[in-house]
Amino acid sequence: MPREFEIIRKYFRPLADIPTSETDVLVNQGDDCAVVEHTGKLAFSIDTQVENVHFLRSMSAADIAYRGLACALSDLAAMGAKPAFFTLALSLTGQEDESWLADYTRGLTELATQFKVPLLGGDTTRASTIIQTFQVHGTVSRLLTRASARPGDLIVISHTPGLGMAGLDAYRHNGPTELQACYLRPYPQIPLGVFISEFATAAIDISDGLLADLGHILDQSNVGAELQLDALQLDQRFCQWVEPSRQLEWALTGGDDYQLCFTCPPEHRSRLSQAPVPLQVIGEITTHKQLRCRLHGKAVQFDHTGYQHF
């Protein structure tokens, strides 16, 4: 394995040259700090991913890197932010060779280039397992948080839930490649976040599970919700792979979807058809402080709402 500074120079320094239109970079990689000049609101978030907790060592290095940055960028999407730059703290075991490093930066470069988000700095260390921590920064025009949902608002999600968990299961059991990609290569919904920031009242990305993440909006907005599960549409790939008896649970509590869940006033329903991705209305914000689910007119409950570390 190459020495630390050779790794940085050869594999990570080129990512600093990815152009960004969201801020002016005054000092890039190579100094003790990066320096940017920016006027306005700057959103930032940090996300740590640990081998065999957030990703599997058997995954390609490109998928590990791509997935790591995508999950971090998804937080910016939930705030309606446009990506500006990111930093990376990467812990390696020392067993990774140059082929692995080249593959890792290939996956990182692919997504960073797509969203015009350069790598402005970071750190590399040795550890007993691979750990990657991404801090992402983005610019915000209108604040979009979890705390402003109001009774009567529609509850909307992008695409269909459950593909992340189904994709992981497909990866573990050599299932369809297209389904595996839903887990290995999630797409951060940046364009959608910018679009809904004009009219949404609250938003969150679906990382731990739809019920769990919607619950965060309800807690911080001090409201409740009623979901009409009859209206929930599921992807055909998901339905073909997952047993019917498990489909609803996986869709609502599986997590790793990195779609957006947001609320908006009903008078903006017509705007939903103009979104850059398919959307579906699955319920309504209520005054009671509970999350209620109804299926075929009857109340249904789930033993858990999503993933928790502890």
TrEMBL record:
The positions annotated for binding Mg(2+) 3 are 32, 75, 205
Domain named PurM-like N-terminal: residues: 30-138
> Which residues make up the binding site for Mg(2+) 5?
208
In its keyword annotation, does this UniProt entry include Acetylation? no
UniProt: Mg(2+) 1 binding residues: 47, 123
Q: Which UniProt keywords apply?
A: ATP-binding, Kinase, Magnesium, Metal-binding, Nucleotide-binding, Thiamine biosynthesis, Transferase
For substrate, which residues are the binding ones? 54, 256, 307
General function of this protein: Catalyzes the ATP-dependent phosphorylation of thiamine-monophosphate (TMP) to form thiamine-pyrophosphate (TPP), the active form of vitamin B1.
What other facts are recorded?
Reaction mechanism of ThiL seems to utilize a direct, inline transfer of the gamma-phosphate of ATP to TMP rather than a phosphorylated enzyme intermediate.
Name used for this protein in its record: Thiamine-monophosphate kinase
